[in-house]
Design a protein that fits this description.
CATH class: Mainly Beta
Largest sheet: 7 strands, mixed
CATH topology: Jelly Rolls
Structural class: mainly beta
Distance between the termini: 18 Å
Shape: globular
Bound molecules: calcium ion
Helix content: under 10%
Strand content: 35-45%
CATH superfamily: Galactose-binding domain-like
Length: 194
Amino acid sequence: MFWGGAFIESGGSVVMETENNDGKFNRNGYRWDGAAPGSPQTATDGWHGDGYIAARPNDDLRVFFANGYLDAPEVVYNVNFTTTGTYFVYLRSSGPDAKSDSAHVGLDGALNGSMALYFIGEGGATSNWKWRSNNNDGTRTKINVSTPGIHTFHIFMREDGTRIDRIRLSTNKDWVANPNDSAKGPDESPRGTF
Ligand SMILES: [Ca+2]
Ligand SMILES: [Ca+2]
């Protein structure tokens, strides 16, 4: 789907519904269901916007480790940045089990992190969805926007079955979605042409 422009970063923050992606690439028998073109996924309650994306099929047969992320199915988002510098990556995610709770993220084609995400039932949790912002080793997931203008944010599959609802890129390293980390977060950013 052509949305007519890039997401607009403002004040060091940009928020995107994952289902409003700007491109989608199926690879090696795997795909992101719910990414445009195609209807958003809606079966797991608690999503925002029009739904979410999910890596499928969830057969646990293959994990795209960091050295093979370019072989993994991908979705992309175009963002116009005016604020340069370090952004922390926050993903609102969900998964059916611990073999379905991670993804790779990047900027302009480079890999910037392999994120440990969230699965239902983790730690006795009662929410289907939570925001996560760390790599698998516990360090923060970051991107560096070195120049103003349009850049492309990428999500690649790592483990199949992973669901992602929303993306926030923020210069605030301490952001917590109030009233708790399962909350929606800020409204989706507008788009514009540049
Ligand atoms: Ca899986
Ligand atoms: Ca969504």
